[in-house]
Description:
There is one protein chain. The chain has no helices and 24 strands. The protein has one domain (about 5-10, about 40-290): Neuraminidase (6 Propeller). By secondary structure, the protein is an all-beta fold. It is globular and about 50 Å long.
Amino acid sequence: xxxxxxxxxxxxxxxxxxxxxxxxxxxxxxxxxxxxxxxxxxxxxxxxxxxxxxxxxxxxxxxxxxxxxxxxxxxxxxxxxxxxxxxxxxxxxxxxxxxxxxxxxxxxxxxxxxxxxxxxxxxxxxxxxxxxxxxxxxxxxxxxxxxxxxxxxxxxxxxxxxxxxxxxxxxxxxxxxxxxxxxxxxxxxxxxxxxxxxxxxxxxxxxxxxxxxxxxxxxxxxxxxxxxxxxxxxxxxxxxxxxxxxxxxxxxxxxxxxxxxxxxxxxxxxxxxxxxxxxxxxxxxxxxxxxxxxxxxxxx
Length: 300
């Protein structure tokens, strides 16, 4: 069985915790694709300038994708706009099952997970095709999906991994949804919402303890033998403002981008975990996931 070592940065224990409410979790809504307060719009919505410089690495076509339970969005860090692509629909044209999270490979192929199944997504129209059913224990759901960059876990290929609401993480076969258990978050840490992996930087995650009133940014390093190390970076806070339910993560330039359950877009400092509210004008009141290619551009 894989093992985990937990490393705390100095100062984390000194962060004030306000209140004691439980973190809101994603709960699939019955009767197909909608969700409570899922109010996506088809019109592009300008985001506030979050200080990103134009892409100088020839990757201006890199798109960050995000979603609510029923709607797929794209976000361009170059033009700082969010666009609603459309509702998730199955091959019959009916609403697809509520989608819990999203992952993107180096070729910008998009995959989503429902409570039970893995899907491939057509990003031009948000149509989904079922790949298979996850073979995990009843009640486990993949709250966090990402492709690990080639060489991070396997030397010859990218690897789709998912972390569950039970604090376990698995390798997932993107051709049939078969899962292989890799490890468990230690010290009662749980997946707060997402993972994102970028070639040259590694893998970032939002994690939490039960009862936390903020999410925490961490970095996970995977070894080829299936073991891993979790380094806690810091709480996602901005002064007295605490950011929680960060269900989607992506990366571009210098920042980790967080997409929250209340529709916030949060720029997160990859060195400290500190958050900055980029905008609430995202076109939805709820994000459930986000992702970006493993070859997203890096600005040092």
